[in-house]
Design a protein that fits this description.
It comes from Chitinophaga ginsengisegetis. This is 4-hydroxybenzoate polyprenyltransferase. GO terms for molecular function: transferase activity, transferring alkyl or aryl (other than methyl) groups. It is found in: Membrane. The structure is a single chain. With 299 residues, the chain is mainly alpha-helical. The chain has a single domain, classed as UbiA prenyltransferase (Tetracycline Repressor, domain 2, Orthogonal Bundle). Helices cover 78% and strands 0% of the residues.
Length: 299
């Protein structure tokens, strides 16, 4: 069981759940709703979308290790498959099951006529394409990885289909952000370049400036500012350390920081588009992810 959990990257899955909650907030699904007025009928679609992203993200990262099994036997022999904890066949079965659960859970929300199920298929396809081919391309690879997160945010927004037609363009924001994180992740083993780190810093700045502008336009700037500030702190502290010393361990910390900080980013979206109580509920996922990140590998 520990081996299976290591394959699924539990700390990362928590960040994927935060993506969904941010998308739901952007869709205005939470408008005029408080914790005291939540009902089962209202919350069930949200729960199903969270289950969908658990399956999609978990299945995606499992297949990442399946496709990297040979390389990991040299570079990361401690991982479950090369160490012999989990066989490659077992990993393929687990990954397939998780992706299937994710797609079915999404279709349970949107049915065949809705967007959710088809977006889930898009996430699963993008993840498999990245694992097999995308990661080997220096330019298309990061964009491919970012597409997975962009579609995941849209999966949350699809809970209100009409809003997806309005806010589809917001999927580009996580694409830029995750592409920036993926851009430096190639240096985790052998170290990276300062030029690559500076490019990532520029992309980060573009993302949080955009977040501030959108929060201002929705008249929630001061409510979202603490969350945006936390996000900026979490991504830039390890990144600047890596700029001073672009060694493998420092790059790894910068990548881990970029992934975990997604929860702060998503809490900021919730504060900008919904209410502070829901934003606090999302930010409370952060300590859970941090604890899991100490137990299980994030990258």
């Amino acid at each position: 069981m520990i081996g299976y959990l290591r394959l699924m990257r539990p700390a990362n899955i928590v960040t994927a759940i935060a993506d969904i909650l941010a998308g739901v907030a952007i869709s205005a699904y939470f408008i005029n709703v408080t914790f005291s007025t939540l009902t089962l009928d209202f919350t069930l679609p949200v729960v199903c979308l969270c289950l969908a992203t658990i399956g999609l993200y978990g299945g995606g990262v499992v297949f990442n290790d399946v496709f990297d099994a040979e390389l990991d036997s040299t570079e990361r022999p401690e991982r479950p498959i090369p160490s012999g904890t989990i066989s490659k066949t077992q990993a393929i079965i687990l990954g397939s099951y998780l992706l299937l659960v994710g797609i079915l859970a999404a279709f349970s929300v949107g049915r065949l006529t809705g967007y959710a199920g088809w977006l889930a298929i898009g996430v699963a396809t993008s993840a498999l394409v990245y694992n097999k081919w995308g990661k080997h391309h220096s330019f298309l690879g990061p964009l491919n990885m970012g597409l997975c997160r962009g579609l995941n945010l849209l999966l949350g927004i699809s809970i209100v289909p009409e809003m997806l037609e309005t806010y589809w363009w917001m999927g580009f924001i996580p694409i830029i952000y995750i592409a920036a994180v993926t851009n430096i992740s190639r240096g985790e083993v052998h170290g990276g370049s300062v030029k690559s780190l500076r490019l990532t810093a520029a992309c980060y700045a573009l993302v949080y400036i955009t977040m501030g502008i959108l929060a201002y336009l929705h008249h929630h700037f001061w409510l979202a500012l603490p969350f945006i500030g936390l996000f900026i702190f979490m991504i830039n502290v390890p990144l600047f350390k890596a700029m001073k010393d672009p060694s493998g361990p420092n790059i790894g910390k910068a990548v881990k920081g970029g992934i975990i900080a997604l929860i702060a980013m998503n809490a900021a979206w919730v504060a900008a588009f919904a209410t502070i109580p829901f934003a606090i509920a999302v930010i409370l996922l952060l300590p859970i992810s941090l604890v899991l990140g100490k137990i299980f590998a994030v990258t």
